[in-house]
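// run 5 | inverse folding | seed 20
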């Protein structure tokens, strides 16, 4: 089960808030709160409040421990821009855009740390073939690089801009 929270019309540019959102993406909620508490960016405060709200909502609805929550998805979208004008030289006016952000957060309820994909089972090594011409050991799983290059040259497919060999 997932719980969602969102906040709209935050008067911080989305580009600045995304920097903070990238710090806490895919982390445990308790770790993310600690990270946000010590982040000096302006966007950390509204995200921290939003995360606290999502945690409280999950506790209220599902009666879960905050240590079991994980941030699955956090998105920062662009909100409306307030357009203002500033006087410039020779009677010109330049536009100033005061940007806003919409932030949405989704928490996953359950084990905060999922098992990562375990290493693939160890495969038995295939025997290494010995080339008759050169006497060098060759791995049978990889095709010979020299033969591939020769095929490319014969088929007319090669580098177009080949450097001269000195």
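// decoded
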């Amino acid at each position: 089960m997932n719980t969602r929270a969102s906040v709209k019309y935050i008067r911080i540019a989305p580009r600045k808030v995304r920097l903070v959102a990238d710090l806490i993406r895919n982390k445990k909620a308790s770790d993310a709160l600690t990270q946000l508490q010590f982040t000096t960016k302006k966007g950390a405060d509204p995200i921290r409040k939003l995360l606290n709200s999502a945690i409280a909502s999950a506790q209220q609805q599902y009666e879960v421990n905050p240590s079991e929550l994980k941030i699955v998805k956090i998105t920062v979208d662009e909100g409306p821009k307030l357009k203002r004008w500033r006087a410039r030289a020779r009677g010109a006016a330049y536009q100033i855009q005061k940007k806003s952000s919409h932030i949405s957060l989704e928490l996953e309820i359950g084990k905060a740390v999922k098992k990562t994909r375990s290493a693939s089972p160890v495969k038995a090594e295939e025997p290494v073939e010995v080339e008759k011409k050169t006497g060098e050991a060759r791995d049978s799983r990889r095709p010979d690089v020299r033969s591939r290059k020769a095929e490319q040259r014969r088929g007319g497919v090669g580098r177009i801009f080949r450097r001269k060999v000195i």
